[in-house]
Design brief:
Layout (H helix, E strand, L loop, with lengths): L11 E4 L5 H12 L3 E6 L2 H13 L4 E5 L5 H13 L6 E4 L14 H29 L2 E6 L12 H21 L4 E8 L8 H4 L2 H10 L12 H8 L10 E4 L8
The chain binds D-gluconic acid.
Pfam families: adh_short_C2
Protein name: SDR family oxidoreductase
Family: Belongs to the short-chain dehydrogenases/reductases (SDR) family.
Length: 255
């Protein structure tokens, strides 16, 4: 019955940065709802291990190794999908990096590196995906934002700027591609237990701050984002576009 609205059977989802962390959890979640998933990363060995793990669990998994900051590699990957008859129905722009340094000490090259990896990548990959979704009249793009899409924190300026940009890129995609039948939305995770956050998790002061600041009094687990991703990837959200949904234990709603 209504659960069919959430089924992803027959759909193919490309999730960038999905050999581990949040991307892996998004891939597992979408595959669990029936999608064929394309895992992406730069480390081919790690990608194959993740793909084989998921295949052993019965999922339909392809891999596409490319660097999300390399436009030529991105275009080659999409041309490869075209050649193999693989149509990307769902794109999760998840890949990203963090670089923590006070702005007074931040080199311009590091600023650019973070913006390229977290924001420009989502534009380029989104454009390549949408160019192919538009003629089919259907597509779902899910960009991964952050609490820093709304709020700044000292030492992560370029990440904050990129994630604020992700929120507005999502609206720009919704504005331009809605008439082609594409919905673009974003997920804004709170503080999650991932490798990227290892330095924060192991810092007692930071850990205490996250727990005090989050109404649910704990960090989030990557798999707790899967439901929001399935919703935004599925027919259940067919008239939802341009939104950013915070899955953050309530953090962004309180002082
Ligand atoms: C940081 C973290 C971020 C946060 C995220 C919360 O350094 O601030 O690495 O990625 O986890 O911004 O939404």
């Amino acid at each position: 019955m209504s659960l069919k609205l959430f089924a992803l059977t027959g759909r193919t989802a490309l999730i960038t940065g999905s050999s581990r962390g949040l991307g892996r959890a998004f891939a597992e979640g979408l595959a669990g709802a029936g999608a064929r998933v394309i895992l992406n990363g730069v480390d081919v060995a790690r990608l194959e291990i993740a793909a084989n793990d998921m295949r052993a669990a019965g999922h339909d998994v392809l891999t596409a190794a490319f660097d999300v900051t390399d436009e030529t590699a991105i275009i080659n990957a999409f041309e490869g999908f075209d050649a193999e008859g693989v149509a990307v129905d769902i794109l999760v722009n998840n890949a990203g990096i963090q670089f923590r340094k006070p702005m007074l000490e931040l080199a311009t090259a590091d600023w650019r590196r973070v913006i390229e990896a977290n924001l420009t990548s989502a534009f380029v990959i989104g454009r390549e995906a949408a160019r192919r979704m538009a003629p089919r009249g259907r597509g779902k793009i899910i960009n991964i934002g952050s609490l820093t899409s709304e709020l700044a924190r000292a030492t992560v300026a370029p990440y904050t700027v990129a994630k604020g940009g992700i929120k507005m890129l999502t609206k720009a995609m919704a504005a331009e591609w809605g008439e082609a039948g594409i919905q673009a939305n974003a997920i804004g995770p709170g503080y999650m237990v991932t490798d990227m956050n290892e330095a924060l998790l192991s810092n007692p002061d930071f850990d205490g701050w996250v727990k005090a600041r989050t109404p649910m009094r704990r960090w989030g687990l990557p798999e707790e984002l899967a439901g929001t991703a399935i919703y935004l990837a599925s027919d259940a959200s067919n008239y939802v576009s341009g939104q950013i949904i915070y899955a953050d234990g309530g953090m962004i709603s309180v002082l």
